[in-house]
Design brief:
This protein is mostly helical. The chain contains 19 helices and two strands. It has one domain. A hairpin with a 2-residue loop joins strand 1 and strand 2 (10-11).
Length: 407
């Protein structure tokens, strides 16, 4: 019988995972190697000593565990790879070059762009919203985008999806589990306050670093075929998400529906315009990094959370910055007793505090490799941490903590 190893009462699994995250923070030029090494160490330990909780010991336990996780991992892989191609279609449509004529010339232009990302994320996947924001930023700021502003783009996409059951994987999970969309929408109270707190400092920061361009190219010609392709891909994702949740929820447990819909649209529209496949190798590295961390997190012996309370929900937001929020949300749904609006905000927005804390952060970091530094992300994106706490307590003061009845 396998016996888990404890170090001063702490399971060795957590220590190995913590060392992996520390390695990512320190060796930010070698994040993929660190993540894969950490995952290999955790898998080896689980095989030899601890087993895989409810899935059993040894190789059969590992196989059953991966059977349980593969849909989540496949969806993340397909979405990150697919939306990278979408962002290139959007860039080559020349619409980002047109944006200087639509955005104000000063710091308010950067602020309006963050608001646009926030609104888009309420309807689209937050990865797509973040990549669209990052693509526009690269053009309107002459490719000189401050890391603090990149963090704000990620935060805006996560905040925009926090109150929408189609805007984030975690809120979609709540919807599938029976939580009312009207309960989740309360998260926008905190998300809107958080936006006010971090968006202005981030926009001023970016304006000082590299002001917005004042004029679009005079000979600009929009490629409307690429615009149509972007719209088709996003519509496919939205339609698949809503229809699967409403009519075929069981399908979501056995197939990566959202990712497959995105790639079906990409391949079909390739007949109209060829995707820029050259972005795939670098995107693959970033995607593999996130999948390694998500897989490692899924193996942690988190069988239950502390007693449901607003303090626990607040803490889960900070945990979400370094620990995948999907298993955290699944545990919270199983446990019950939460005010789901608070939890949606915490696990949705909390991942913005570190670059690998959300899939949107990893997607932006694939586009801007200089953002793959925990130190720079935290020190230059500090308004996000402040915004998270302020938004949470404003929501608590205005709405109060009201645990929802079993759903």
């Amino acid at each position: 019988m396998l016996t888990p190893v404890l170090v001063y009462g702490i399971p060795l699994d957590f220590i190995l995972f913590g060392l992996t995250l520390l390695g990512v923070a320190i060796f930010h030029h070698h994040t993929l190697a660190v993540a894969l090494t950490g995952l290999a160490a955790i898998v080896a330990y689980k095989l030899l000593f601890a087993g895989f909780a409810k899935f059993g010991a040894g190789l059969p336990g590992l196989v059953h565990h991966m059977e349980h996780e593969w849909v989540t991992l496949a969806n993340l892989f397909l979405l990150l790879m697919g939306f990278a191609l979408l962002s290139r279609h959007f860039e080559e449509s020349r619409i980002p070059d047109e944006m200087p004529t639509l955005l104000p010339d000063d710091w308010k232009g950067g602020l309006l762009l963050l608001v646009i990302v926030f609104v888009l994320s309420a309807f689209l996947d937050n990865i797509a919203a973040a990549l669209i924001g990052g693509t526009v930023a690269r053009h309107v700021f002459r490719s000189r985008v401050h890391i603090g502003y990149l963090a704000a783009i990620v935060a805006a996409s996560n905040a925009g999806g926090a109150g929408s059951v189609v805007g984030d994987t975690t809120t979609t999970m709540m919807w599938i589990d029976g939580v009312s969309p009207l309960t989740v929408v309360e998260a926008y109270v905190a998300a809107a306050v958080a936006m006010l707190v971090f968006a202005v400092p981030a926009s001023l920061q970016q304006h000082r670093f590299s002001p917005i361009v004042k004029d679009a190219p005079s000979d600009l010609k929009i490629d409307w075929a690429r615009v149509a392709i972007v719209a088709a891909i996003l519509l496919a994702a939205l339609t698949a998400n809503v229809s699967a949740n409403l009519k075929f929820p069981a399908l979501l447990d056995v197939l990566p529906v959202l990712g497959l819909a995105v790639w079906a649209a990409i391949l079909l529209t390739a007949l109209l315009r060829r995707p820029d496949w050259s972005v795939m190798p670098e995107t693959f590295k970033g995607t593999l990094f996130l999948l390694a961390l998500v897989t490692a997190a899924s193996m942690m012996p988190v069988e239950k959370l502390p007693v449901a309370s607003w303090q626990t929900a607040l803490g889960l937001g900070f945990v979400s910055a370094v620990f995948d929020n999907i298993p955290l949300t699944a545990l919270a749904l199983k446990q019950g007793g939460y005010d789901w609006g608070f939890l949606a905000y915490a696990v949705g927005f909390g991942g913005s505090m570190v670059w690998f804390g959300s899939s949107a952060g990893v997607a932006i970091s694939n586009m801007y490799p200089e953002a793959k530094s925990v130190g720079k992300w935290v020190t230059q994106g500090w308004p996000i941490i402040v915004a998270y706490v302020v938004g949470f307590f404003v929501m608590l003061a205005l709405l109060g903590w009201h645990p929802d009845a079993p759903h």
